[in-house]
Amino acid sequence: MKKIYLVFIVLIALTVSCTKNFEEMNTDKKHPVEVPGETLFTNAQVALADQIASTNVNLNVWKLYAQYWTETTYTDEANYNIVNRTIPDNTFRTYYRDILVDLKEAGKIISKDAALTPEDGIAKQNKLEIINLLNIYTYQRLVDIFGNIPYTEALSIETTISPVYDDAFSIYQDLLSRVDNAIGALDDSQGSFGSADLYYAGDVAAWKKFGYSLKLKLGIALADYNEGMSKAIVEAVAPNVFASTAEDCKLVYTKTTPNTNPLYEDLVLSGRDDFVPTNTIIDIMNPTNDPRRPLFFDTIPGQPEYTGGIYGYNNSFSNFSHIAASIQVPEFPLILLGYTECQFYLAEAAARGFNVGDATGLYNGAVKSSIMEWGGTEADYDTFIAQEGVAYDQANWQEIIGTQSWIASYTRGLVGYNTWRRLDYPIMNIPEAPESDDGQVPKRFTYPVNEQTLNASNYFQAADAIGGDVESTRLFWDVSAVPAK
């Protein structure tokens, strides 16, 4: 771990001026100074956003698992082969090493910083709580990907190199407690990271809203597992979550490398034509003339209709609609958690009978927000929402909300995949040669192969605890059955 940070420090050093003043010439070059905690925090923010945004099949296959996109020539990943490229290993490593370790080290360094005034002390505490919130966000993603994971002993290489795997529900409970503590400790009378915060520019009030919205996300995930607990959580936070898309937590990339959206790197700079939109999403959006289609997809010459590649099969890039050019620009933003997503959670909560407002109004607001944030108009929304199959229907709320929430999460694969796992909609297609153990759409990632040798005892205990380390094992919160195709 120390070697990793030494490399990072050297890279930082290479970006500064080569001018050697008296102080520099008297610095011991064999013992580099500590990286500022703010720098590590920024680095973690970029690594987290990049991991979510990327469609590199070595690192992130959630746009495939959510069946937004499918592959053209090489279809292993769309057929759920995640072992050949060791995708679980790469995912595990990215979240723990590149995100959580940097957040932990940022917190350790900032904790040691002297606070010369009471105002400095408040700003310092704000920084630590913001780090805590991103830590919570990251751990929820890891649980939602794998199930039981290293948590209480994770990142403690000084005391153990073989961390135990904690129970997933117990982790959720602790995350909920931690988010409460963070919300309570944030003090917006002072600032925090300032420009080092790439999401909110140090706006503490915005981070507090993020905390409430994150708790909503954690709470609604428990609805089928523990309805009473979910209801209490969601009802308590509902009044305080994001109130508009202006409050979204996002990273806005730049037009110049190396600060461009990974989608630009994967889809444009790579020079490859590896992906097309799927028949899954286009066949759902076409019958309703969904106004988001030209914002999601580009048609091809001679083919005015939107057509999707068959999920999990070989698809000629030239025969199907393409991913919209607007998504492939270098500055395309990445939303980590936003208003539209939260509105769908609240609509779902209302449909379940939670006291958070009117289900129809919340659902309509969520759909409208999605259309508007993608560049549609109010007239587009008015026409769209009036259609049968789109208009809210309490008798079929899982299908109505699940499908529209899934569409709204386009480009954020894990969010859409989670919606499908929780609400069982929309109906997914089965690929040509599925390599999941049951031949169906996977319900989770298998654990990294390396864990079977490097942390064998804890790995096998975790596998037994969740019901087997296979792709068909459901997470603790995924307790309902997917309808038959």
Characterization of this structure:
By secondary structure, the protein is mainly alpha-helical. It has helices at 2-14, 22-25, 37-53, 62-65, 87-112, 118-146, 168-185, 204-221, 227-237, 262-269, 279-285, 293-296, 339-351, 359-373, 378-385, 397-408, 413-423, 451-454, 456-466; strands at residues 69-71, 149-150, 165-166, 249-251, 275-277, 297-298, 322-323, 334-337. The protein has a single domain (37-434), classed as Serine Threonine Protein Phosphatase 5, Tetratricopeptide repeat, CATH 1.25.40. The chain is globular. Mean pLDDT is 92; it is low at 1-32.
Summarize the structure.
With about 475 residues, this protein is mostly helical.
Strand content: under 5%
Uncertain stretches of 5 or more adjacent residues: 1-32
Helix content: 40-55%
Give the strand order, joined by hyphens, for the main sheet: 1-5
Give the CA-based shape.
globular
Distance between the amino and carboxyl termini: 47 Å
Could you tell me the radius of gyration in angstroms? 23 Å
> What's the average pLDDT?
92
**What is the tally of beta strands?**
8
CATH class: Mainly Alpha
The structural class is mainly alpha
Q: How many H/I helical runs?
A: 19
CATH topology: Serine Threonine Protein Phosphatase 5, Tetratricopeptide repeat
Taking the sheet with the most strands, its summary is: 2 strands, antiparallel
Count of individual domains: 1
- Known CATH architecture: Alpha Horseshoe
Question: Which sequence of SSEs, written as H and E, runs from N to C?
Answer: HHHHEHHEEHHHEHEHHEEEHHHHHHH
